[in-house]
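Onboarding guide, step 5: your first structure request.
Type a short instruction followed by the sequence, for example:

Predict the 3D structure of this protein.
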Amino acid sequence: MAKPEEIFPESVLKAIGGKPVKNKLSVVVLSGDLDKVMAAFIIGTGAAASGMEVTMFFTFWGMKAIQKDGIMTGKSLFGRMLGLMNRGGLKAIGPSRLNMGGMGRWMFKLMMKQKGVASLSELYDTAVELGIKMMPCQMSMDVMEYDPAKDFKPNVTEPVGVAKFLEEASESRVTLFI
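The system replies with C-alpha cells like these:
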C-alpha cells in the first residue's frame, strides 16, 4: 500500500499547524447508543484493516462502549445514581430510537445475528486485534466517576485530556465525531 507522501504533494499533506498529515483516522465517540457505537467501531475497524492508524476518543456516554459489562460506577450519591441509570458495557447498549424498554436492543441484536452482522463485542475484539488506540476522556471520567483501574475493558489507554486527542487529530487525514 502506498504511503500518503507517495501519492499527495507535500502541500496537501500539511495540516494547518504545519504538521504532516498521516494515514490516520481519529474518532470522537460521544454517543452510547447501539447504532452509533456500532458505526464508530465499523468505521474504525474498516480503516484499521485498510492500513490506517486509528484513535478512538471516548467521552461522556460513549464511554459505555469501553466499560466492563455489569460494572456499577460512582462513589458519591449522584455518581452511584448515574451508574445505576447508565449501566454500561457493550451488552447494555440500546439503540438511539425504539429501545422500548430493552425490547429494541434484543430485536436489533437478533436481526444482526440473522444477517451475519458482527456483534458489538466482536467489533470491540477486532478493534483490539487491529491495534486501535482507545482513549477515555479524563474530564468525562472524573465527572461520571469512573475508576480506570476497575471500570474499563482491557486495552483501553490511560485517561487523556482533550489536548492529547487534539494532538492525535491534528495529524489525521480524517476526523469524525459520532
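Each response can be followed by summary notes, for example: The chain has one domain: 19-177.
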